[in-house]
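User: I'm new to structure prediction. If I give you an amino acid sequence, what do you actually give back? Let's try with this one:
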Amino acid sequence: MSDQDKRLGVYFHIPFCASKCAYCDFCSLPGRDKLMPYYQDALLIQLQETMPRMTDYFIDTVYFGGGTPSYYGARRIVEILQELKVTNRLMKQSEITVECNPDSVDWRSMARLRRSGVNRISLGVQSADPQQLRCLHRIHSPKQVVQAVADIRQAKINNLSLDLIYGLPGQTMVSWEDTLHKAMSLSPEHLSCYGLKVEADTPLAHQVSLGLSLPDGDAQADLYLRAVELLQQGGYRQYEISNFAKPGRESRHNLKYWTGREYLGFGPGAHSYFGGQRYAYPRDLEGYLQAI
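Assistant: Good question. You get back a string of structure tokens that encode the predicted 3D arrangement of the chain. For your 292 residues, that looks like this:
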């Protein structure tokens, strides 16, 4: 087995959110903040129980996804990272990513994360149009996006990804181009552009059933192709279907999923590919806590 084969990604799912977005089908739970301390204990216990299985591996990527890890709080994320460092498996040059929403970012928490080893932030921007943000039940404003990016940069985190969505209600080619230009003006190292999917049993699905109009498949394809064109002109190389990066700034963790590398997931809804097996935990927070 080569050194490359012995490298492992680790994913922590943080299911807590300030509010639920209209399109969200992930395991994300607003209004459950009282369970955060119990969840933290459960994650740490599961991590400690799993450590013996990691002894043959070196961890080169760590990803905190959600939900909204920034809402969960820097202190808890730092505590998880400290526990991971105890294994002596975490490589010094690891890519450590934390997903954040603009409304739960401030420079002090970002600086605290950076001091603990976090070197990459994935920021959920989605759109530069306030009306589109409201339709998605996003609780941040475009102004908060600009401030969040400034706070992240002030904290000396120099690897930033912005998430955008196309195919939104009321989105035109002009408004999508405006979102792309404003995103690029913030000089992120990475951009992810996702087509809006209407998942069953979401508020968005209910709105569509009541007559909310979305761009059709052809229109969505045109928006996607325009993004590819504009981002390429802006110096972003497309390296996955939805992902674009400055040279050398591709997401090393996401590439594990595409290249068949091993990764371990922790938390409800988290997936793993480890030891030749693929498995996932049920999307059930209370069940996860009881099981641990």
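You can read the tokens as a compact description of the fold. Here is one thing that stands out. The longest strand covers residues 90-100.
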